[in-house]
Give the backbone structure.
Amino acid sequence: MKVFGRSLSLAALLLLPTIGAFLTAEQPASAQHAPLGARSTPYVICCGGGEPVDPSSASIAGFAETASDGGYWEVGTDGSVFSFGDAQYYGSMAGVSLNAPVVGLAATPDYKGYWEVGADGGVFTFGDAGFYGSTGGTSMNAQVVALVPTPDGKGYWEVGADGGVFTFGDAPYYGSLPGNGIGTDSVTAAVQYQDGYCMTTSDGTVYCYEPWCNVCQFPTQNTPTPTVGIATTDYHNSGIWIVDRNGQVYSLNGGNFEGGLSSQPNGPITAIAGGPSDSGYTMVGADGTVYPFGDNGYGGEVSVNSELSPANAQGIARLMLPQYNWGTPSQWSNGLDPLWQRESYWWWCEWSGQQPGCVGSGSGGYGIPQADPASQMATAGPNYMTNAWTQMIWGLGYIQGKYADPIAANIKDQNCNPFCGYVVTQTKAKR
C-alpha cells in the first residue's frame, strides 16, 4: 500500500502513526488526520526495544515512565523511541522527514501507547494513543514544548514556550499564561496535574491550571541553570518536582526530595518523570543517561555520542531555545539556525572549505559556535573539543550575554566582514 507516495508493508501499517495540522486559537478543536510512514520492526537493545543505536543517534528530548518499577521510554529529537523494562515499543517517527524536531513523549493512561509531539505542534500517535488534532502547520507565536494527556487519555493539551495552551479531544481549557497577561517565551516543560496541567519557565516558576485553581503560581526557584523538566507525584496527590539542566531537583507543594546530581552531566538533563509511587523520580540526559532517585528503578538506557551530526545538533539546539526566553519561532529561523549554519555548518569540530572534519581552517574559531579560543567553552561543560552539547550551551550563553538574542547576533554576523563575525575576540579584533 502507498501512503503519500511511500510504500508500506502490512507490518508498517500496524505501527502507523497519525498527525494533524491545524488550529488558530486557544480553544478545543478536532481534526481529520493524515498518516505517515514509520519504522516497521522494533530493534532489541539491552533491556527493552526500539531503534538501533549508532554514533549519529539524535539527542534524547523526552522521557516517560510506565506504572512499574524500571519501565520507561526515551525519545530522540528525530522521533526515535527506545523502550526499557516493561515499556513496549509501538513504533516511532525514526527515518521519517520531520518539519521540526520532536520535543517530547507522553504515555497513554494504560501505558499501551504514546504520543510524540514536535516543536511545530505536530502530533504522532502510536499503540492505543488517539489522535485528536494538533497545531502542526499553524503559524504559532511560540514553539510547542510539551503534550500533556488528559487523565482518561481521550484528549490532550499542547503547551507553547509562551505558556499558550491548545486543547484537543476532551481536554478542557483552564487557562494560559497569555490569557493571564503573563508575557514570556521561556516555558520549557509541562505535565498533568490532578485534572489539569502545570508548566514551568526556565527560571523555575511553576504555574498550574485546574478546575479549582486558575493559575496557581508557586514561588520562583531561580535555578542556577535553566529549568528543563517538571514532574508530579501520584495523580491523587499534588507534589511537584522540577529539574534544571545540571540535574538539580527542586520539590514543591509536598513533593519528596530524593536527591539530584552532584556533578555536571556529560549530556544536559532534558526531562524528569515521576515513578509508580510518590517517593521517586527519574531524570534523563541528552546523551541518554538515565538517573533514577528514591524508589525508582533502573531498566537500561541508550547511549548517544556527543559528536552530534549537524542535523542532530540542530534538533537539540531548537529544543534549548526556550531555556533562554527565545521560544519564538523566528529566533530559530531568522536567528540561530542561519547564524551557526554560516559559521560552522553546525559541525562540532573545525572544517576546511566544504569538507567537514576535524582539520584546522585557519580562522581560529572552533566548534559549532566558532569559539576563539576554543578553551573558553570549558566553562560550559565537559569535553568541549568533542561535546556538541557543551559547545552549544557556551554559544547560547555567549549570544545571550552579548547580543540578547540570536536574531541580533545573526544581524551582526550578516553585516560584518568575513574576518570579524559575531564572536568578538582579541584575534579577530586585530584583523
Remarks:
- The longest helix spans residues 329-344.
- Residues 1-48, 354-362, 425-431 have pLDDT under 50 and may be disordered.
- The CA atoms of residues 188 and 320 lie 8 Å apart.
